[in-house]
Amino acid sequence: MSALLVSQFLQAQNADPRVPAPETKNPEKEKKAPLFGINFSGYVKTDIYFDSRQTYGLRESQFLLYPENEKLDVDGKDINAKANYNILCIQTRLAGTITGPDALGAKTSGYIEAEFFGNINPAINSFRLRHAWVKLSWPRTELLVGQWWHPMFVPECSPATVSFNTGAPFVVFSRNPQIKVTQSIGKIKISLTALSQLDFVSDGPTGTSPKYLRNSVLPELDFQIQYGSKNDRKGTAFMIGAGINFMMLTPRLSSDVIVKNSFDTVINNIVLHQEAIVNSYKTDSKSTALAANIYVKYTLPKLTFKIGAEYGDNNYSYTMIGGYAVKSITDSIKEFVSYTNIRSYAIWGEFHTNGKKWQPGLFVAYGKNLGAGGNLIGPYYARGNNIDYLYRISPRILLNVNKFRFATELEYTVAAYGITGNKGYVFDSKEIGNFRVLIGVYYFF
Questions:
Q1: How many domains does the chain have?
Q2: 257, 279 contact by CB (below 8 A)
Q3: Nearest 5 degrees, angle CA 420-CA 336-CA 369?
Q4: Residues 273, 294 within the same domain
Q5: Cβ contact 321:383 at 8 Å
Q6: Are 400 and 20 in contact (CB under 8 A)?
Q7: pTM for the whole thing?
Q8: 60-101 tens-digit pLDDT
């Protein structure tokens, strides 16, 4: 059972350097695990990368999203047009697969995984939790409780890039505490998930935080359906799936209206400070959003093809462009407001060979800001609200030799920056591109 769980996890981590891709075998042989207990695994990894300009991303841009916009000095020179490099080992990872006796007529299992990526930029190099779940598996039903990939990130059909960004911001990239029930009906799997937020959170009036979702009481809800078939004799497999997602945020619990500004007075050479007078009014205005995803994967003996797409009303917490903004003032005295979403979509595709030793591949993607469709007064709680569209072209090649892997990838990412109109649309855009040369060195254990 433990070996099976390890195999399933390795497939789920096709964007991580544990395996070349979910269709190929791990360069190391799976360990024979005890019937009950914990089986440790992981890898040591070093990333060496060069960027042609300044970039926007996470952890010193090791998790690259897109290039920074132009920043012109008084002479008209672009300050951000400066190349840079880095060497980081923060993806080094330790995982534990747990097996135990049956319970409630189901097979039981657990999984924990952590790495040195840190959960915020100042905490880079610190040990942080990635996944932690327990699972009950019956013949046709599965219950997972814990932290795992967001359901719109489909591990079996996600980009197998060398870059740790796994195709973001063109692909949903989020891990969430959740309760997930999956039902199998022949070749069809149906899942319903209730989620909260922790590391991947929404933006709002007081900055990024999970409280906007928590204060709405209703968890984020996701429904997925997947069909899969496999022909072992021909060495082929086919998978198609789609889903829909609902999220509701409560950006503010109160509005604070300044009745009288603060001021200082001087009496007998003594400065007296008078604090501002503020009236607070309880409010519960909501921001609701829908999202949808679809994906297809086709596996041949020597090649694998994948394609996926996602549309969302508010994609900020999925590490994509988009979010929401203030639409109007509904009560000028109490300063109550209404919200509307900054919509976006992305589509991606890739192919790679299924070689055990050498594995070249190519990833391409396109994302588009769809604006709000109505007038906005701001402020914006969104990522990339001044970007009209993005695209990426990323060829790669992997070399696997037993427990060692050497991988290299050229990633060209373009963001079209422009002027944001009063409806959230971006016009007069200019393409800004970045070349990243990435080398990854891995050792599995």
A1: 2
A2: yes
A3: 25
A4: no
A5: yes
A6: yes
A7: 0.89
A8: 999 999 999 999 999 999 999 999 999 999 999 999 999 999
